[in-house]
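ESCALATION

Customer reports they have been waiting on this structure for their group meeting. Please prioritize. Original submission:
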Amino acid sequence: MRYFIVSRIDREEAIAFAGTLADDLRMAGHTVFFEQDTADTLKRDGGLSFEELPGRADLVVAVGGDGTVLRAVARMQPQLPVIGINWGEVGFLADLERGHALEFLKALKPDFPVEKRMRLAFESDHGHVGDALNEALIVTSRPAKLLRFSIVIDGEVAETFRADGIILSTPTGSTAYAMSGGGPIVDPWIDGVLIVPLAPYMLSSRPHIISTDRKIEIRLETTKPANLVIDGVEVEPLGLSGSVRVMKSADPAIFVKSERTFFEKVEQKLRRL
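Update from on-call: job pushed to the front of the queue and completed.
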């Protein structure tokens, strides 16, 4: 098997673990590449960029929390199977705990099972902005200022409200920021957009789940400039009166299946915090 390891580099324990994991996998007869920043931090030669990855690896191993997994998925094109080793806080997208990671990876066969997770694609008035595995957030660039939104479904205004912002989440992201904003936990097998107003001014403004088969548009009508933030990384200025179109991405994320199901992780990582 050919592994590509990317690690968070802001924690010495995580980067040291990535180096030891690579050495152990090589001792077991596997091929291992490091992501360039990971290799540089470890002072190892032969690091690869994500652009050099296609055709060189069978899967990506992300050592870190959910942010490490999200950044790896965002930088891959096309997508490769990814599995995370938790070195963060909750680590909902990181299926493996560090004590069992080596055993799991050494036992993987070339026909290992995978699960595809829908991503959302976003278009502004300037064209395609990016794809999100968890969510996109529309929020004012000036803190503590309300924005005015209209949710347009199939060309019809379904709701207009004022709020601090709006979360546009995938089912995978329903256990992340959208949950903190009062949204429901959604089965990741569902192809839908979870729309969660962030601190709405009216109590009647509630979360929606809209099928990706519909045409979904968020119109911004405000006197305060706003930004679109994708998975906490990419930022697109929207100005005062832009619109964002939301659709199912043609390029889903691919996760290596581990022993734990989505609902087991909800029970173990969320309900017992």
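Sent to customer with the following note: The two ends are 35 Å apart (CA to CA).
Escalation resolved.
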